[in-house]
Amino acid sequence: MKPTRILLLLVAVVLAGCDRPSSFSSPEMEAASRQLVPQDPEIAAIYGRSCSSCHTVAATGAPLTGDASAWTPRMAKGMDAMVDSVINGFGGMPPFGLCMDCDAQQFEALIEFMATPGASHD
Ligand code: HEC
User: Fold this and answer.
1) What is the pLDDT of residues 50-108, one digit of tens each?
2) Which domains can be identified in the chain, with CATH numbers?
3) Atom of ligand 1 nearest to the CA of 92
4) Which residues line ligand 1 (CB under 6 A)?
C-alpha cells in the first residue's frame, strides 16, 4: 500500500469512530425544539434572547427545549438546584444563562418551559 492510501484509511477510521455522543439529540429534535415558545410574552422574550441560542442547538451540549429524556434526570435534582445551576453557571453554560437581569422566578418559569415534554413527539 502507498503511504497516501494508508493515510486515507486512517482518516476514514478516525471519522467513523467520531460518531456523535449519544447524549446529543437528533437534528429532528433540534428542529422541533425551535418550534416551542413560552406562552407568557415576557418569558418568551427572555427565552428568545438568552436561553434559546443554546438550548435549541445540540452542538452546544445544552439539553434541548422539550427533550424530556435530556431534562428528566436533571430535573430530578430539584428546581432549587436547577436555578442555582443557571445563576452560578454550569458546565458550558455561562452564569445567569446570559440573562443578567433575570430573577429566580423567571429562571424557574424558563426551566419549567424548557423541561416540559413537547419536542419529543413530532
Ligand atoms: C451559552 C449557552 C447557553 C445559554 C445562553 C443558556 N444555557 Fe442553559 N445550559 C447550557 C449547557 C451547555 C448546559 C449543559 C451543561 C452541562 O451539563 O455540562 C445547560 C444546562 C442548563 C440547565 C441544567 C442544569 C443542571 O444542573 O443540569 C438549566 C436548568 C439551564 N441550562 C437553564 C438555562 C436558562 C434558564 C437559560 C436562559 C436564561 C439558559 N440555560 C441559557 C448552555 C446554555
Assistant:
1) 999 999 999 999 999 999 999 999 999 999 999 999 999 999 999 999 999 999 999 99
2) 23-115 (1.10.760.10)
3) 12
4) 50-51, 53-55, 60-63, 74, 77, 82, 85-86, 90-94, 97-99, 102, 107, 110-111
DSSP 70: H
Question: Phi and psi of 93, rounded to 5°?
Answer: -95, 125
Q: How far is the CA of 122 from the centre of ligand 1 (A)?
A: 23
d(CA 78, CA 15) in angstroms, rounded, equals 39
Distance 5 CA to ligand 1 centre (A): 44
From atom 36 of ligand 1, which residue's Cα is the shortest distance away?
Answer: 51
